[in-house]
Specification:
Layout lengths: L9 H13 L2 H8 L3 H15 L4 E4 L2 E4 L1 H26 L5 E6 L1 H18 L4 E6 L13 E6 L7 E14 L1 H6 L15 E2 L5 H8 L11 E2 L2 H9 L5 E4 H9 L4 E2 L5 E11 L7 H16 L2
Parallel strand pairs: 3-4, 3-5, 7-8
Antiparallel strand pairs: 1-2, 5-11, 6-9, 6-10, 6-11
Length: 297
C-alpha cells in the first residue's frame, strides 16, 4: 500500500521539474502556461509536503539547494515513466508496447529485418527500439528488456540465451589481393581492426588457430558498423560476428580469412527485470525470438 503522505501532487512535481530544468520560475511558468505566483505556490506546497526546503530564496529568485538536484534526478525519471506509459496507452490501448534496448549493429543488421514478422503476428503490439553499447540499470531506465553480448552476469535480471558468439576474420577482396593470407603467420604486420568492447576477440581467433596475436594491431572502434565500413575500404582485417560476416561475404564486400566461424567467448542474451516477467508484449516477444532462432540456420 502506498502512503499518500509521501506522494506529492503531479502538478507540484511538474512545476518543480520545470523550474529545475529551466533554472527559472519565469521560464517554467511560460512552459506550463501558469503564472509565476502559481508556480511559486506549487514549489512551496511541495516543500511543505516533503518537510524540507529545496530552494534558497534570494531577491524573489529560487536557488536550488543540493537536495533539490538529487531529488530532480529521481523525479525526472518518474515523470518520464508516467509519460511513456500514457503515450503507449493512447497510441496502442489494445496490445501494449515493448521498450527494447539493443546493441546498435545487432539492431539494424539482425533484429530489425525480422521485426516485421513479429508485428504482423502481433498486430496489437508496438515496439520502441533504442540502442546502447553498455549495460544500464533497469531501475534508472524505462526499458522493458535489453539484448546484450557477454556472459550471464547482468545483475538483478532474468536471462534468456539467444545464441553463442562465433567469429569470422574477413577483409576486402582488394586488400587480400595485395596481402594474401594463406596461413596464420601471414597475419603478422597486417592491420587488425579492434572493437573496444571485445578485447578478447582476436585472442580467441588466434587461439583457435593455435597461435598468439602479433604485437601490431590496428584501429579501435566502438561499433561493428564502423568496423565493417573500414574493412570494406581496405583499412584492415575485421573480426566480425557470424551473423554480420555472412551478410558481407554473401554480398561480396568482404572475403573470409582462413577458418570462418570459430567459437568465441561470450553469447547474446535477452534480459529483463523480474517485474516484467508477465508483461504481455515481452512474453510474446520472448516466444517469437525462440521460434526465430529455431528457424535460423
Amino acid at each position: 500500500m502506498r502512503q499518500r503522505h509521501f506522494l506529492p501532487s503531479l502538478s507540484q512535481l511538474i512545476a518543480f521539474e520545470a523550474v529545475m530544468r529551466h533554472h527559472s520560475v519565469t521560464a517554467a511558468a511560460d512552459e506550463l502556461h501558469l503564472t509565476q505566483s502559481t508556480v511559486s505556490r506549487l514549489i512551496r506546497a511541495l516543500e511543505d509536503r516533503i518537510g524540507k526546503p529545496l530552494f534558497l530564496r534570494q531577491n524573489r529568485s529560487l536557488i536550488p539547494l543540493p537536495e533539490a538536484r538529487a531529488y530532480q534526478n529521481d523525479i525526472s525519471r518518474g515523470l518520464d515513466i508516467i509519460q511513456r506509459a500514457s503515450m503507449s496507452m493512447m497510441a496502442n490501448p489494445g496490445g501494449g508496447t515493448l521498450s527494447l534496448s539493443v546493441l546498435p549493429t545487432l539492431a539494424t543488421r539482425w533484429l530489425a529485418p525480422h521485426l516485421g514478422r513479429f508485428l504482423d503476428a502481433n498486430p496489437g503490439i508496438s515496439i520502441n527500439l533504442s540502442t546502447q553499447i553498455r549495460r544500464f540499470s533497469f531501475r534508472a531506465e524505462t526499458h522493458d528488456a535489453a539484448i546484450y553480448f557477454g556472459q550471464q552476469d547482468w545483475p538483478d535480471v532474468r536471462h534468456l540465451k539467444l545464441f553463442d558468439e562465433r567469429l569470422t576474420a574477413c577483409a576486402a577482396p582488394g586488400f587480400l589481393a595485395r596481402h594474401p593470407v594463406r596461413q596464420v603467420d601471414d597475419m603478422a604486420g597486417l592491420p587488425r581492426l579492434q572493437l573496444e568492447t571485445r578485447a578478447l576477440g582476436w585472442t580467441d581467433w588466434f587461439a583457435a588457430h593455435d597461435a598468439q596475436p602479433p604485437a601490431a594491431a590496428g584501429m579501435v572502434m566502438d561499433q561493428f558498423s564502423t568496423m565493417i565500413q573500414a574493412a570494406i575500404s581496405g583499412l584492415g582485417i575485421a573480426l566480425l560476428p557470424h551473423y554480420l560476416a555472412r551478410i558481407e561475404i554473401e554480398e561480396g564486400r568482404l572475403a573470409p580469412i582462413l577458418t570462418p566461424d570459430i567459437p568465441a567467448t561470450g553469447a547474446y542474451w535477452l534480459v529483463w527485470p523480474a517485474s516484467k516477467d508477465a508483461h504481455a508484449p515481452l512474453v510474446r516477444f520472448r516466444d517469437w525470438l525462440g521460434q526465430l532462432l529455431d528457424d535460423t540456420p
